[in-house]
Design brief:
By secondary structure, the protein is of the alpha/beta class. The protein contains 14 helices and 18 strands. Helix 7 (228-234) packs antiparallel against helix 9, helix 9 runs parallel beside helix 13 (440-449) and helix 11 (394-407) packs across helix 14 (484-492). Bound molecules: ligand BES, manganese (II) ion and zinc ion.
């Protein structure tokens, strides 16, 4: 979708020419194109356009004088007068693409302004905004919606008048955003079309494409290994469980990061059945698994060399079939810890505990990050604007917080002292799988903490951000693809 253009605005005669302008105190904004500056001045004089952040001006000029472009449409977008930052450019990218999609334009040329701002960073974030903002999931639409926007933009060309090389920035922005869109695709699929088997097929295909190693632990292997958590959660389902493992190895001396993503392809709650209102959203309970696989995809595509990566996705449904796990059952997690299952709807922690314990034992990582739509409680605490971060390591938190901020996917750390773990004491087993009602996001993390030991570990509870995430121009309704770009950024900016 994105490419560099050698053709400048003067000779461009395509569908849509786009400029960005800064707002200034007392003068109309300008973009160094005489004809367009005339349009802006008239709009400014009428009070219609001043270059405020996100404001836009779409015009249909007559064939311009030679040397000033003969584009069919011209769009000017305001950047405001405040300090520029990554998120602003991402949002501007989303705004531009949504305006373009409302027209019949098929391609556009974006002229990058020469501002006191890093050109590569601007390019990268605009690229992200374009790709993320253009995303629609239309696989199951068979009828044309007369009210639907055009959605015809196929190509966005970037033009920089300075000779700074923006090719790499464009590529990285596109890779991160496309990988997030891939995670959105997985989440949008109905649960019957995105089963544990689809996770393993996707993992195998990723490995084949990018030279990674994929191992899939099937039901029989999981039994042999004693993965009592994922097996118990799977009992009520007709779809066999799968544990998908992807390895991306750069060099033996590089540290190893283990990623674990909750791949619960449908969460009915099991015997502790959820209410029916909104249950359809529980097809999204695999967003953590999607995030880690798609982050692997992005890292492999970008060929980052700083870290070895292992990703594990424990994948199963949670259904109340005749052999389903029952409240009160005692299970044995991988490694031997016994758990009294008081509520079968607290299933995410059971499958994650196996994956974390197994991944740590088998791959001896230097650090671990898990991503999961784990608790409704995190939504009570943080709403839909921030991902919950719980961790046993301050350094790892700092890096993740920074990666989240850079990516426009902010995190908020919640406490995780030993006090919370007391609630998980069971009368008859080592642990029970729920605490008291209050502080549910923390007790869930406290449960996971029992399976990671001393290794630096961070848990991202994305229940509030995996869908219904903060409304933004580049986040359409539905799944957001959260955490893919945060993890991508984390790996990219890793320095020992
Ligand atoms: N997948 C849910 C958490 C969830 C809820 C994600 C709403 C997104 C939106 C998880 O498996 C779950 O059911 N958690 C329970 C835990 C409780 C039984 C301790 C919850 O949060 O209600
Ligand atoms: Mn549940
Ligand atoms: Zn769940």
């Amino acid at each position: 979708m994105l490419q560099l253009s050698k053709v400048g605005p003067e000779t461009y005669s395509g569908d849509l020419l786009v400029y960005m302008v800064r707002q200034s105190e007392k003068r109309p904004p300008c973009c160094a194109n005489g004809v367009i500056d005339g349009v802006i001045r008239r709009a400014y004089a009428l009070g219609d356009f001043s270059g405020k952040n996100g404001e836009h001006l779409l015009s249909y000029p007559e064939k311009c004088k030679l040397g000033t472009s003969s584009a069919k449409r011209i769009l000017v977008v305001g950047l405001g007068k405040d300090e520029l930052n990554r998120e602003l450019f991402r949002k501007i990218g989303g705004t531009m693409v949504s305006i373009a999609m409302k027209s019949k334009a098929r391609e556009m040329l974006l002229v990058l302004p020469d501002l006191a701002y890093d050109m590569s960073e601007m390019t990268e974030c605009l690229a992200e905004g374009f790709v993320l903002g253009a995303y629609r999931f239309k696989k199951y639409k068979t009828k044309k919606d007369p009210d639907a926007v055009g959605e015809m933009v196929r190509k966005v060309a970037f033009y920089a008048s300075t000779n700074i090389n923006i090719a790499k920035a464009l590529k990285l922005g596109e890779i991160g955003a496309q990988s997030a869109c891939q995670a959105r695709d997985m989440a949008n699929e109905p649960a019957s079309h995105w089963t544990p088997g689809h996770f393993s097929a996707y993992g195998r295909q990723l490995a084949a494409t990018h030279g990674m190693k994929c191992t899939v632990l099937d039901q029989a292997r999981l039994k042999k290994l004693g993965m009592g958590g994922i097996l118990a959660v799977n009992q009520g389902s007709a779809q066999p469980p799968e544990m998908v493992i992807l390895e991306y190895t750069v060099k033996p001396e590089a540290p190893t990061l283990l990623l674990v993503g909750k791949g619960l392809t449908f969460d009915s709650g099991g015997i502790s059945l959820k209410p029916s209102a909104g249950m359809e959203e529980m097809k999204y309970d695999m967003c953590g698994g999607a995030a880690v696989l798609c982050a692997m995809q992005a890292v492999a595509q970008a060929k980052f060399k700083g870290l070895n990566l292992v990703a594990i996705v424990p994948a199963t449904e949670n259904l109340p079939g005749p052999s389903a796990l029952k409240p009160g059952d005692v299970i044995t997690q991988y490694g031997g810890t016994t758990v009294e299952v008081v509520n079968t709807d607290a299933e995410g922690r059971l499958i994650l505990a196996d994956a974390l314990a197994y991944g740590i034992k088998e791959y001896k990582p230097d650090m671990v990050i898990d991503v999961a739509t784990l608790t409704g409680a995190v939504i009570i605490g943080l709403g839909h604007h921030r991902t919950g971060l719980l961790s046993n390591n301050d350094k790892l938190c700092d890096r993740l917080l920074a990666a989240g901020t850079r990516s426009g996917e902010p995190l908020w750390r919640l406490p995780l002292d030993q006090e919370y773990t007391k609630q998980l004491k069971s009368e008859i087993a080592d642990l029970k799988n729920i605490g008291k009602k209050d502080g549910g996001a923390i007790t869930a993390a406290a449960f996971l903490k029992e399976f990671v030991g001393e290794i630096p570990w961070a848990h991202l509870d994305i229940a509030g951000t995996a869908w219904d995430f903060t409304e933004k121009s580049y986040i359409p309704k539905g799944p957001s693809g959260i955490a893919v770009r945060t993890l991508f950024d984390f790996v990219r900016n890793w320095k020992g």
